[in-house]
Amino acid sequence: MNWIGLYTILRREVERTLHVAVQTLAAPVVSAALYLFIFGGVLGSKIDDFVGVSYISFVFPGILMLSVINASFASSSSSLYFMRFSRAIEELLVAPFSYFEMLLGFVASAVLRALAVGGLILVVGWFFGAVTLMHPIWFVFYVSAIASIFAMLGIIVALWAESFEQLQVLNTFVITPLTYLGGIFYSITFLPETAAAVTKLNPFFYFVDGIRSSMIGYSEANSQFGLVLIILLTVGLATLVITMFRRGWKVRV
Known about the structure:
- 74% of the residues lie in helices and 0% in strands.
- It has helices spanning 3-19, 21-42, 55-85, 89-94, 99-127, 136-160, 169-180, 193-199, 203-216, 223-247.
């Protein structure tokens, strides 16, 4: 394992994140605070407690997940795309890195950024009285695993994109709609039977359910199925990204 190279990638990404901290750290926190104020403070005060917790505590895991997804996806996609755009990717390709180490460097840096954003949002949620953390270890696992999945999706999009506009295609037309339809702001028990069945086909439903179960101890999905789904997606996407790196798709002329 090239530990010096991995450290260099992580340090570069951390410095890049801190250099534009208003965009990478402050903006997600402000957005999460607005969600908490509107859906938790304003609407939540009109809604009775659900499954023994306040409405704001029920929706908080989904709000946190949304920020984690955006942070990890943006970190890996923007980093790799700019390396392609500036031809700096060639320096990485000739460095003594294995394809797995390349993957690990991009994913680890994205996870670090996602955890930083998640930690700041936890602080904001604490001020709103929204934070309940029943299973901290599982919470860190789910946040890190979900961040890893979307970091790898960001890598795939960064390899595919031919313009800055295309970097946001997946996020705008796939990730955001599926996230909002995955049970962030509502329980599937409120839905008609058909709509609830359709929601269970949405992988994002299992993502938010995993984080919610680790925080408030309440789960609406099959936890074992959700865990297997997350593991399979992580392994499958990692295999796909390594294969793309090995074939030099969009990174070798």
